[in-house]
Amino acid sequence: xxxxxxxxxxxxxxxxxxxxxxxxxxxxxxxxxxxxxxxxxxxxxxxxxxxxxxxxxxxxxxxxxxxxxxxxxxxxxxxxxxxxxxxxxxxxxxxxxxxxxxxxxxxxxxxxxxxxxxxxxxxxxxxxxxxxxxxxxxxxxxxxxxxxxxxxx
Length: 153
Known about the structure:
Elements: H1 2-9, H2 12-31, H3 40-54, H4 68-79, H5 83-100, H6 102-110, H7 115-127, H8 140-151
């Protein structure tokens, strides 16, 4: 009973911040296990597009993939010393994006559930097995948070 009282004393935004921060820390630590691209074709394609955009090349219409993700990672290639540093930073950005998906998930769940259940929904949102895609230079982290945010509309 004392544990329940303690849990209820902490406001939901604090728990939500803890979920986002905890998710980010675990994803950041996990991303260190991937030292180089694993899904070669896609990761190299997105990396090359981000690097070209970071170098100031204009976006090309024949790119064949969406431009949102390369535009997101381009500043990392532009401002960091080299591709290895940019690759590590991209994985951190992916972890942050994936972790931030807890926010729209919580807001969606609050439309029909009490705060405690909405927090569980937010936690489950960042605990799905697909979270490991944030270790890769792929669009999934950006798409995940954007999809949940769009569902709020």
